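Have a close read of the entry that follows and walk me through the local backbone shapes. See right below:
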Amino acid sequence: MNADPAELAKFSELAHRWWDMESEFRPLHEINPLRLDWIDGLAPISGRRVLDVGCGGGILADSMARKGADVLGIDLADKALKVAQLHALEAGTRGVKYREVSVEALAAEQPASFDVVTCMEMLEHVPQPASVVKACADLVKPGGWVFFSTINRSPKSFLFAIVGAEYVLGLLPRGTHEYQKMIRPSELAAHCRAAALDLQQTRGMEYNPLTRRYWLSANTSVNYMFATRKPL
């Protein structure tokens, strides 16, 4: 296998944090089945070529590969990618590869190459979300699906996603989100229209801190997801 054991060992401790269900990444593990089922329900991914933009440690990418998709996960965080690669090796996950490349650079290299593109919890962390949306649109084949998830910029999201999740409940590290970078659904919809993506479905994601349960709903006031398609 073309892997350096010393490099894999170096990132073992970090990998444990990404894939530890009780670490700061616990919320991503808990919402992953909801996301995966929603994506697969609208755009069945088995046998499809799928791109996961901003894949981090590979939580969604790995689960899509286990559903039978041919997955490429991309990120600009080198350490996170090494974590993802290490996990794939340890878990024996087939059908997933990772690359350190920007979505814009990949769009120039491989336009209209993927059946499904996912971009989850990334847009609120980049300076130009519209550029990411456009690149995702360029990467998907005509008739293909592009899925986004992000956080609404609203008083409720400030209370729940920042004050509640980061400071009161400690679900996320403090400073994970910046309020001014959050994106209203109307703004994301405008980015999608500008990229010639047709919005097909919107879902909100809610959380009960007492039961630690997440569920999908029509309430997009805090966390929400878009399912879009590129016209044929």
The chain has one domain: 5-229.
